[in-house]
Automatic annotation (TrEMBL):
Residues 923-982 form a coiled coil. This is Glutathione synthetase ATP-binding. GO terms for molecular function: ATP binding; ligase activity; metal ion binding. It comes from Fusarium agapanthi. InterPro entries: ATP-dep_AA_Ligase, ATP-grasp, BL00235/CARNS1_N. Residues 290-520 form the ATP-grasp domain.
Length: 1013
């Protein structure tokens, strides 16, 4: 039986109380923290049993979890000082991402008073009181021993050494948050406010629908509807709306460039904290920022038209190439391009103007391109003093790496924390940035700045076999030791949510939380929470990655049924549609390192693409406690897997006809194709896999069949790109497609979950059709796979084709390709699918075309009940019977109570005795009636059970009928797609008479199917 060991230590404002099941033999418990006490769990009288019974449900549940797992330990944080909670859950952002911790739990509510226990924990009673006073706990997979305690003590001390418990009561605040109508996508911005005891009132456009989720679902307390047009009167509308609000509002926050100046003007008018509007006017305007740093305008200029640019190029004032052009009022990296020559500059400025047409300032600024490492510099200022600074490595973008930068962008690709630049260069950057921020007029706030360092001792280099570069020392001699810093821009706000997540994980700094505290002027907590983890030399390494995949409007529109196409820009995709969930089944060794991930939709034009095209943009943050090298390996691996994990349509030839498979079961999840190729260490490896969702008979929940194409069996690999002439089947999935053609020397391997029984059977007809198609695929040696064009470069495709033809490709080896680890660790097995069942006699013998259908509505079958009506009638009966049953029981209970009260008293007269005799007879009669009623109740119970069985049967029949209808609809869609291909064949060159004849046949067949004839 497990037993408990207790030991304690000090960690800043907490005692750490360790509790773990004892799995070794009895004996003295000696740890690095001193002696502990074993408490037996052998019987109900033991002290451990008392411990679990005496604690509240949350703590008792954690103790029970500790017992159940048989290993690992719980660490309870017991306060050393009394006071008030500055945050309701500091473990969530300071401890939860630690590799030594599997989960955390808070026992606090916002602003709660905290009382430190005074008793020692050397006695059981002291332990009871310590647990009662504990304010949070963590669960660790480590076993209780000296080494584990030392590791946890170091990490907990490093992470929780900040003044979280306030000696004074913490005031409640109310914050007004400005945003656009995409409230669900923006709620992460104020998610921390509730834990801080700050109420959030959101001001946005569009009425708050009563049919929508209530405000608390979005972590806000109230909603103000207002016109959010950023015109000259915007700030007055903000101030008037806040004055009209029934409760006082303590702060105003709109951390987006278009809102900053109006929000500052409104805040100044209302008398709440704000930096000066003029400071925001400079930071949100790239021309004014550049002018502040270079008053003589020696290195930059602006243009408002292509004609003005041409005049500048023809003038005596030369343009020192290379240069970068960007919209003066631009956001993010939209419309930012590099140019090495005058023709490239003309093209770049023209593209920048496309973006600036949507902005309040039409101008484009042209400035020098700096060839040096780019960084983000995040700073926290308070009254002119830098409370915290950090440097983030920003990796080269496509515009940096391309020899011809035409059309290439500066969209952020990857970022890493901590920086690899030497300390002196990091110091030079922070000094320059802090100075520039103060010069703009800011002295307090959170700032996200971008800069490059010239003449650095480091440069981005591709090592052998690497697909991304990393910072390495420069081998050549530098001409100077000076390292001037070139500041690109100052964002008077926090980094984006994903970039901020890197700082939370690596440093414990939550910039969004600090932004909330700054907005309401809570300076004591603003300072307290600006303290990073101790021991910066010991850190988790984080790596931010952006993966961008082209998608068609038809594929993303169903995810946003209530949004017109012109409102899809930057919409957040619900996490249930994230590919991370699918990849976790096949690549758990990678996805376990994904700490945060976020998907949103962007129009391709914002990133230099074509009008009408769309981009599926995934931003994710990896973390690892091991090293930057490990983070680098993850950063190389994941984009290849993610971007290649793409929707696909399969085609093959079978019995002289072209077959295709595009719709699996369920049909809202696409068929996916993943491809991974690598050529390192003189080896050429590749992995090709098709994932087809299907429902198995003995596992009705969604699963999948995996088709693996071994590189050893590829006799020939060909490809076609930029296929725009697509049938309707493919147009639903791709805007433009690439076709990968495989010719094989052996059949494809079919893998299914190891828990599925053989022979493999489907749970419903649609899955049966999918399995029939997979049977055919497993017996062919040639197939075509259609995927979104541009996912694979021509170089990659040519390389695969050349090596496959020469027989140089080998399969990958390693745990990620081990089938025993597939399906979330339950494993996979190779199988042979059963052939399709032969068609029925009627189908096999029907060779004549169908007769003209009768256009009469088909009568419902009389031998089966009509689902919804029958069920409602049965339920009505059930409700009446239940009501009768409960009424009878109530009457019997009342009668029995009366009978108990009607016993005769011994000192009553003879008359009373006679009356008592009469009452006894009545009692006997009532008891007999009671017995009859009980029998009736039992009969009613039996009838109720029979009716419930009948209802269940009807519901099953209804589900089956619905499933049959769904399959019929899918079959009709498949037939339409097949017939469209036949019709296309006719239209492309056959005579008119034949075309009419076949069209009539098509329509007759469709009408027959639709009408059930």
């Amino acid at each position: 039986m497990p037993r408990f060991g207790f030991c304690q230590s000090h960690s800043s404002q907490f005692h750490n109380l360790y509790i773990a099941p004892k799995v070794r033999s009895s004996g003295p418990l000696e740890t690095s923290l001193g002696p502990g006490v074993w408490i037996s769990d052998n019987d109900s009288q033991s002290e451990a049993s008392q411990l679990r019974k005496n604690q509240d449900s949350i703590i008792a549940a954690l103790l029970q979890q500790c017992i159940a797992q048989g290993e690992g330990l719980c660490v309870f944080q017991v306060p050393r000082v009394s006071g008030f909670a500055g945050h309701a859950n500091p473990w969530a952002f300071r401890v939860a991402d630690c590799a030594l911790v599997s989960s955390t739990k808070t026992f606090l509510s916002p602003l709660q008073e905290i009382t430190a226990p005074s008793d020692s924990t050397n006695t059981l009673d002291g332990i009871f009181k310590a647990l009662d006073a504990s304010i949070g706990a963590i669960i660790s997979p480590l076993e209780l021993c000296d080494e584990a305690i030392d590791k946890l003590e170091f990490e907990l001390t490093r992470r929780l050494s900040f003044p979280f418990i306030s000696s004074e009561p913490v005031r409640k605040w109310r914050l007004c948050f400005l945003t656009w109508s995409r409230i669900a996508a923006k709620r992460a911005a104020w998610a921390n406010a509730k834990a801080l005891g700050i109420e959030v009132v959101v001001m946005s456009s569009g009425a708050w629908s009563e049919d929508d989720k209530p405000p608390h679902e979005y972590m806000m307390d109230c909603y103000i509807e207002m016109d959010m047009t950023t015109d000259d009167g915007f700030w007055r509308r903000i101030a008037d709306a806040i004055r009209a609000y029934p409760d006082p509002i303590d702060g105003l926050w709109g951390p987006w460039d278009p809102f900053m100046v109006p929000a500052a003007k409104a805040a100044r008018d209302l008398g709440v904290y704000t930096p000066e509007p003029e400071a925001f006017s400079i930071s949100t305007n790239k021309y004014r920022t550049r002018q502040m740093l270079d008053p003589d305008e020696k290195d930059f200029f602006t243009v408002q038209s292509l004609k003005e640019l041409e005049s500048r190029l023809q003038s005596t004032r030369s343009v020192n190439f290379p240069v970068v052009c960007k919209p003066v009022a631009g956001l993010s990296s939209w419309g930012v391009y590099r140019a090495n020559t005058a023709p490239q500059l003309r093209d770049a400025v023209e593209k920048s103007f496309i973006i600036s047409q949507e902005l309040p300032d039409l101008r484009v600024v042209v400035e020098p391109y700096i060839d040096g490492p780019e960084v983000d510099c995040n700073i926290v200022l308070f009254r002119g003093q830098a409370l915290y600074t950090e440097i983030v490595d920003d990796f080269p973008c496509s515009a940096d790496l391309a020899e011809d930068p035409t059309g290439k962008l500066f969209t952020e690709s990857q970022a890493a924390v901590p920086s690899r630049l030497p300390e002196n260069e990091q110091r030079a950057i922070t000094d320059e940035v802090v100075s520039a921020v103060r010069k703009m007029g800011f002295d307090t706030g959170v700032f996200h700045c971008e800069a490059r360092i010239c003449n650095s001792s480091m440069e981005y280099t591709f090592t052998k076999g690497a697909t991304i570069p990393d910072l390495e020392p420069i081998a050549r001699h530098r001409s100077s030791k000076d390292t001037p810093v070139y500041l690109h821009e100052v964002n008077a706000r926090m980094p984006g949510p994903m970039s901020s997540a890197s700082s939370i994980i690596a440093r414990g700094m939550d910039f969004w939380m600090l932004g909330v505290l700054c907005a309401v002027g809570d300076w004591s907590r603003y300072e307290a929470f600006s303290v990073p983890f101790l021991h910066p030399e010991v850190t988790d390494h984080t790596w931010l990655i952006n993966c961008i995949v082209p998608v068609s409007l038809e594929r993303i529109k169903p995810l946003f049924p209530d949004h017109p196409a012109d409102q899809l820009a930057h919409q957040a995709v619900d996490s249930s549609h994230s590919l991370i969930l699918e990849l976790a089944k096949t690549h758990p060794h990678l996805t376990k390192h994904v700490a945060r991930h976020h998907v949103y939709i962007e129009p391709a034009t914002r990133l230099g693409g074509k009008e009408g095209d769309w981009l599926w943009t995934m931003c994710m943050v990896f973390h690892t406690p091991h090293s930057r090298e490990h983070a680098f390996q993850l950063a190389q691996k994941f984009p290849e897997v993610y971007e290649a994990f793409t929707p696909a349509v399969l085609e093959w030839e079978w019995e002289g006809a072209t077959r295709s498979l595009a719709t699996p079961d369920p049909d809202n999840v696409p068929i996916r194709f993943t491809i991974h190729a690598d050529s390192t260490h003189d080896k050429h490896r590749a992995h090709f896999e098709i994932i087809v969702p299907v429902k198995f008979k003995d596992k009705p929940s969604s699963a999948a069949v995996f088709l693996r194409i071994s590189p050893l069996f590829i006799a020939c690999f060909r490809f076609s790109t930029n296929i725009d002439a697509l049938d309707s089947l493919k147009k639903q999935r791709f805007s433009s497609a690439a076709c990968l053609e495989f010719e094989l020397s052996n059949s494809i391997a079919v893998l299914v979950p190891s828990y599925v029984k053989e022979p493999i059977a489907a749970s419903r007809p649609r899955s049966g059709k999918v399995l029939d198609s997979l049977y055919e695929l497993s017996h062919v040696t040639a197939l075509r796979i259609y995927i979104q064009d541009s996912l694979l470069s021509l170089d990659q495709l040519n390389s695969i084709s050349d090596r496959a033809t020469k027989g140089l490709l080998e399969p990958f080896s390693g745990p990620e390709y081990d089938i025993s680890r597939m399906f979330s660790g339950s494993g996979a097995k190779a199988t042979k699918l059963s052939p399709p069942k032969p068609p029925s006699y009627e189908k096999a013998t029907s060779s004549q075309p169908p007769s003209a259908p009768s256009y009469q509505r088909k009568r419902p079958r009389q031998d089966s009940p009509q689902g919804p009506d029958s069920i409602s009638q049965v339920w009505d009966k059930l409700q009446k019977l239940e009501s009768l049953f409960h009424n009878k029981v109530g009457e019997l209970t009342a009668e029995n109570a009366k009978l108990r009260d009607q016993k005769p008293k011994p000192d009553e007269s003879q008359a009373e005795t006679a009356r008592s005799t009469d009452q006894s007879l009545v009692i006997i009669e009532l008891r007999a009636e009671n017995a009859q009623l009980r029998e009736e109740v039992e009969r009613l119970k039996k009838r109720q059970e029979d009716l419930e069985v009948e209802v269940a049967s009807l519901q099953t029949a209804q589900r089956s009928e619905k499933d049959t209808e769904e399959v019929a609809i899918i079959e009709i869609r498949d037939d339409i797609e097949s017939l469209e291909r036949r019709l296309s064949w006719v239209e492309n060159g056959k005579d008119e008479y034949l075309m009419k004849q076949i069209k009539q046949e098509i329509f007759d067949e469709l009408a027959t199917r639709v009408l059930g004839g």
